[in-house]
Amino acid sequence: MSVSENFKTFCDDLKISSGKRSTISTRFNSIVKRLNTDFWNMDSSTGGRYLGSYGRHTANGWVSDIDMLFEMPWSVYNKYDAYITNGQSAFLQEVKNSIAKTYPSTYLKGDGQIVQVIFSDSMKFEVLPAFKYTDGSYAFADSNSGGSWKKTNPVPEINSINYGDSITNNNLKRLCRMTRAWKYYCNVPIKGLLIDTLAYRFLTNWNNRDKSYLYYDWMCRDFFEYLKNQNSTQTIWYAVGSGQQIYNPDNFRYKATIAYNKSVDAIQLQTDGKLWSTKQKWREIYGNRYPS
């Protein structure tokens, strides 16, 4: 197959299957319905939204952690804000107990800011119960260090990735999914939100951003070069859209350098007509989901 056919096959294989999406949707709706019953006194599956890579549509088929937000009434905030000590912990415990009514045999725990719902197939939902401000941002509970309320604004991140994808011929989300394949296969210490942020900044300024699969070998090579050239002392970046801090102290640049060198080799092998060797070189970067 050609370069474009190989990368198209690879990208198609990275998509989340319809069966997995159906499972995620069923569990999401069940959690939302339970929380609506207990906190809003209504029978509805509205009021929740996906966050994280699944919410930004940059997750690939390996995704097992589903981030979600559920909007709570402000009366609940007022109740727990009045606690003398760590009302945030008590709030998360009440949310955990609510979800346990629907999933009594599922492992649940309150974890600082979220409630984790871990299913028998190892899929994990991380539920962030939050209170919506008029500007569209959210307050959420942090039970660490005695308890406090913090602020998050995830929707602009989702909107920015959607916009970036629209102006790059739908290449941005594919690049994010491919980069996650590299992260998983090569055990790269880089956070998902940082992948999406750096991919956005790189691709929206890349000269061939409007091209398609035929240019994906160059796109991958140039993005690895962009990653390896990130400031060697930098540990904090700012998320696209929201501007929230992304703390990533671990050094991903070394493995990005290796991936860059291998991508250069792969492109040269393609030029030399060594098509089988080309594919093996890409598989060294992305793993066995890249066509053999």
Write the layout of secondary structure elements.
Elements: H1 3-14, H2 18-40, E1 48-51, H3 52-56, E2 65-71, H4 74-81, H5 87-102, E3 107-111, E4 114-118, E5 124-132, E6 138-142, E7 148-152, H6 155-166, H7 171-186, H8 192-203, H9 216-228, E8 236-238, E9 245-247, H10 253-271, H11 275-286
Parallel strand pairs: 2-5
Antiparallel strand pairs: 1-2, 3-4, 4-5, 5-6, 6-7, 8-9
Can you summarize this structure?
This protein has eleven helices and nine strands.
Characterization of this structure:
The chain has 292 residues and is an alpha+beta fold. 51% of the residues lie in helices and 16% in strands. The chain is built from 11 helices and 9 strands. The strands form 2 sheets. Strands 1, 2, 3, 4, 5, 6 and 7 form a 7-stranded mixed beta sheet that branches. It has a two-stranded antiparallel ribbon with strand order 8-9. Strand 3 and strand 4 form a beta hairpin. Helix 6 runs parallel beside helix 8. The longest helix has 23 residues. The radius of gyration is 21 Å and the shape is elongated.
List its traits.
292 residues, alpha+beta, 7-stranded mixed sheet, 11 helices
Q: Major beta sheet, specifics? A: 7 strands, mixed
Oligomer: single chain
Flag low-confidence runs: none
Q: Mean pLDDT, as a whole number?
A: 96
Shape: elongated
The secondary structure category is alpha+beta
End-to-end CA span: 10 Å
Helical content (DSSP H or I, runs of 4+): 40-55%
Radius of gyration: 21 Å
Helical stretch tally: 11
How many β-strand stretches? 9
Beta-strand percent range:
15-25%
Q: What is the string of helix and strand elements?
A: HHEHEHHEEEEEHHHHEEHH
